[in-house]
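hiii so um. not sure if this is the right channel but i have a protein structure encoded as tokens and i wanna go backwards to a sequence. like what aa goes where. can anyone help
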């Protein structure tokens, strides 16, 4: 059963420019582009200023950092599939507190 989580995103990355701060516009389930997300699920974060270039994970286990980009949800590091300037695809860790 999917449930909404109160997600607190902490993005640790190098801004694209000294004056830019990463901006999150939406967080949706990658399975259906709905806002219901839950631990273990795959989510897409849409916004601006996430990465200098488009990069993907090179294998398993998924890394918690790609390039200079990492994401934590409620204090837990997220495995990352893909990062770009506008998008991050990640797995919400099973141990994410809700």
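sure thing!! here u go:
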């Amino acid at each position: 059963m999917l449930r909404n989580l109160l997600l607190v995103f902490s993005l640790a990355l190098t801004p694209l420019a000294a004056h830019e701060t990463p901006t999150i516009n939406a967080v949706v389930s990658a399975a259906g582009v709905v806002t219901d997300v839950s631990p273990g699920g795959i989510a897409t974060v849409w916004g601006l200023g996430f990465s200098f270039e488009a990069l993907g994970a090179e294998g398993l286990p998924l890394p918690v950092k790609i390039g200079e980009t990492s994401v934590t949800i409620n204090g837990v590091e997220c495995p990352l599939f893909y990062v770009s300037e506008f998008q991050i695809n990640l797995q919400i860790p099973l141990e994410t507190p809700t």
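oh and The chain has a mean pLDDT of 82.
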